[in-house]
Structures are given as C-alpha cells and as structure tokens.
Amino acid sequence: MPCLKLLGKVLFLSKLSREKIISKLRDIVGKEYVETDSAAIRLYSKEASGLEGVAVAVVFPEKTEEISEIVRFAYENDIKIYPQGSATDLAGATIPEHHGIVISFDRMKKIKEYSIVDSYIIAEAGARVIELNDTLAKEGYMFPVDPASMKAATVGGVIAAGGGGLRGALYGTMREWLMELKVVLPDKDGTIIRVGCRTTKCRQGYDLVRLFAGSEGTLGIVTEATLKITPIPENIVTVAGFFETLEKAMEAVVSIKKARIAPYAMEFIDAKTVEIGKQNLNLDWDVRGNMLIVSVAGPVEVAEKYIKILSDSMEAANASNIMKASSQEEAEKLRIFDLRRACYPSAIQLAAQSMSPDKSKPLVLIEDIAVPPTKLPETVKQLRKLEEKYGLPLAIFGHVGDGNLHPTTWIDATDEEAKKKVWEMFDEIMEIALKMGGTISAEHGIGLHKKKGLEMEMKYKKSEKALELMREIKRIFDPKNILNPGKVI
Ligand SMILES: Cc1cc2nc3c(=O)[nH]c(=O)nc-3n(C[C@H](O)[C@H](O)[C@H](O)COP(=O)(O)OP(=O)(O)OC[C@H]3O[C@@H](n4cnc5c(N)ncnc54)[C@H](O)[C@@H]3O)c2cc1C
C-alpha cells in the first residue's frame, strides 16, 4: 500500500531537463499557463485521500489541440502525464506519483451547449457538476449524478472516476449518463477521437465511451463530454425513521421496495454515526438508533400517498421518531439530510479532536464497498466486529438503496502501527463485501488504494484473466505507459 513517505521518493525518468520541459510547455500553452512555483505545484500534487506526489509542473491548456500537442511531446520524451480535475479523489488515483506534468482543466470549463428537446448538455472537462445543474435548473432540468463533492468535482473527474451519489439507486452512476466523449489518446500523435453519439440510441461496435468511464485517467484524456439530462422531479417527499437494529431498518427497506416504489434516495446512517453527527451539528434531536432516510419523487398530488407508504413501512418495523416532509423545502427545514451530509466532515472533525494537533497528523480514510441490499444487515454486523478487533473507530453510513456502504475510520498518519492496522482492516472489509456477493469499490474507484482489492475481487471470482485483459487494454491505449501510470492496474 502506498504511503506518503514512499511517494516522496520518486524517480524522474525523462531524458529532458526540467527547464527544457517547462520551456516547451510554455511554447504550447503560453508562459503564464505553466505553473512552476514549488508551493503551487505542491497543492496540485495532493488529493483528498491524503496522498501526495511531486509534479514537474502544472499546465493549464485551453484547447483539446494543446493537450494533444502536450501528449505528443510527452510521448516522444517519456514524460508522465496526470490529468486532474479538482483532486477530490479518495482512491489515490489523481496524484503525480512518478513526477511528470499535471494537466489541469481550470481553463477548460465552458458549458458549450444544451438542448432540452434532444436531452443533452455539452461541457468541457473542467466544468463542475454543480454548474451543469445551475445552468439546467432554469429550464426545470438537471444532471442527476450527484457526488457529495459536486460543488468541486469536475465533469472530466467524475467521468474518469465513474462517480455516483445519493441519487444512485434511481439514476445509477456516471456511465449511464454519457452520450459522447472527446478524448486525447496517449499515443505518438496525441490522437483526438470522438466516441459515442448525441442520440440516445447509439451502436458503435465495442462501447469505448463506457470504457473511459471509470478508467481513472489511465486510458485517455477527456476534454469534452455530451451528457444526458433529465427533468427535475415536480416534488420530492422524504421520510426518516430511527431503528433499534439494522435488521429492523432493512425490514422497512424491503417493505418499501415491495410497495413498488423506486426511491429517489435511500440513505442509511448507523447509530454510532448518528450520535457523532448530532454532536457535530448541534442537533438537539431526542433520537437514537440507526437512521433510514427515504425520498420518493412524483407529482404533488401523490405526496400524501407516498408519505403514508413510507411511514407505514417504517412504523411496521418499529421505527421511532418518524420525520415526514412533503416537499424538499420542508425536508431542508427539518434538516433531515444534514446528518447524512455531515458524515464525512464529522469524521474529519472527530479525528482532529481525538489527536494532539502539534504531534499528530489526522488522516480520515473512507471505504467504498457495495453489497446486494438484502445483505446489508449481515454486512454491517460483521463490520461492527472489526472496530474491536483492530482497535480503530468505525463510522458506517451509505446509500442503502444500492447497497453502497462507506465504513470510515481515522488514524494518526505518523503512527506506523496504526497505518499498518488500518490497511489490514480495509482488506478485511473488502473480503466481507466479496463474501456477501458484493464488490470492493462502488463509486470511488481503484487508484492506488484498491489495486490489491481489485486483484482480490478477480481472484475471488476466479477471473484473473480479466486482469490480464485490463493490462492488455492499458498497453493498447497507452503503449509507453505515460498516462497516469501505476493506477488501477
Ligand atoms: C467530501 C467528499 C465527498 C465525496 N462524495 C462522493 C460521492 O458521493 N460519490 C462519488 O462517486 N465520489 C465522491 N467523492 C470522491 C470524488 O469527489 C469523486 O471521485 C469525483 O468524481 C472526482 O472528481 P474531481 O474533479 O475532483 O477529479 P480528480 O480527483 O481530479 O480526478 C479523479 C480521477 O479522474 C482523472 N481525471 C480527472 N480529470 C480527467 C480528465 N479530464 N480526463 C481523464 N481523466 C481525468 C484523474 O487522473 C483521477 O484519476 C467524494 C470526495 C470527497 C472529498
């Protein structure tokens, strides 16, 4: 498993000097668009997972053609390239591990066009997901993939990460919303291709569009994307309940699903994380237990009917303190989603509070497994045992509608023993997911953190051949291994 120190000791493999590289990059994009200041470079060499690499320079191209030229230059001179959106990645996929050039999309963030009738929006890779929604909201439309990081996360970053979000149970992840991509390939010519179509139906032989989805910047550099859009639901009702046991919460989930309702969001927060969140948010709710939040979209006329189905299902499963909101505004007023939104920040705050600021370095690590929803109670039961076994805190929350859990822990990154223990615990978490018929990563990806996990999963499924195929695909796309090398496979 990579560690911060290890990543500091990197090799610079190009035959060209740093000065020559910088000079060429300046020729391509203009002097002011190549960052060489060491403090600024350091900022672009980190990602949200806590990992850090070292870049030679950060370059800010404005056009796909400039990126193509950078790739041609990098190919010829064996220089590594690292595409970067907002570096909110949590899998160790973004950092410049082996030196090289970070390509930032800060100057490629235009929303170029949208069509309500043809149901698409075209944006450059650096546009933020929230900006798509700001643009579409005035037409009553939205882009439904909603990572919790969407205020920062970029279109290119979410495509490459294969990201999802709270609405995943209804709308799936990024791959379901891709129509057409413009991509620069890491070959001799920095070839620019357009794959996919601007029509909903599209057959182009093998599906290269979805091969780029979740490829974590290892197969091509996405510069522009045409994405599907959907109307904003007329109304959303939300009901939340607190359950003594997870089994009881799951009973409610099953009964809601049997009522033929497709939830817009279905979130779970375990009792311990509820307590942490309440303290962190100063919520004076007199509630305890495992929290289940379910939202359903539909016309205003059916709001009461949906609320009744949801609350009856929760009551039948002995939920206490059921909160009901017949609109999104009401849900906001009741702060129903605040606890869910606060899970990750709460963990960061708790980590900081539990350590001495001058002697330690708090590091929050978030897992990302998925299991079939019926296996959630058993999964959580097994996860709970790990806390005692490894002596590490474990907050458990996630998207119960699609079985995606985010067990989260925190350690002092200067404590080598804790670091060893945490990776052992994460290996065991992934093993549990596989035994439950699940997967080691639902939405955050593989990066550096989960390379071993990916191998574990393929071995578990007796499909090591799939790893070989993936290595071969990488070789075909990136013959000199210059694009985000060492990640995924
Ligand atoms: C607080 C918090 C909450 C989060 N919540 C969620 C969540 O709900 N759901 C979820 O799925 N993820 C979540 N994440 C993880 C992260 O935000 C997502 O993976 C997001 O998709 C990354 O977007 P980014 O623009 O920051 O990409 P980056 O982190 O910059 O890059 C991610 C990957 O994409 C590659 N890449 C970036 N741009 C391009 C490009 N143009 N072409 C090719 N490759 C490129 C990078 O090399 C890297 O491999 C969360 C992270 C944080 C910190």
Topology of this protein?
Blueprint: H1 4-8, H2 18-29, E1 34-35, H3 38-43, E2 57-59, H4 64-77, E3 81-84, E4 101-104, E5 111-115, E6 120-124, H5 129-137, E7 141-142, H6 155-161, H7 168-171, E8 178-184, E9 192-196, H8 208-212, E10 221-228, E11 230-231, E12 235-243, H9 246-258, E13 265-269, H10 271-281, E14 290-298, H11 303-316, E15 320-325, H12 328-333, H13 338-341, H14 343-353, E16 362-366, E17 369-370, H15 376-390, E18 397-399, E19 404-405, E20 408-412, H16 416-435, H17 451-460, H18 464-477
Parallel strand pairs: 2-4, 3-4
Antiparallel strand pairs: 1-2, 5-6, 6-10, 7-11, 8-9, 8-10, 12-14, 12-15, 13-14, 13-18, 16-20, 17-19, 18-19
Flavin-adenine dinucleotide is lined by residues 47-48, 82-90, 93-94, 105, 125, 147-149, 153-154, 156-158, 160-161, 163-165, 216-217, 221-222, 344, 443-444, 484.
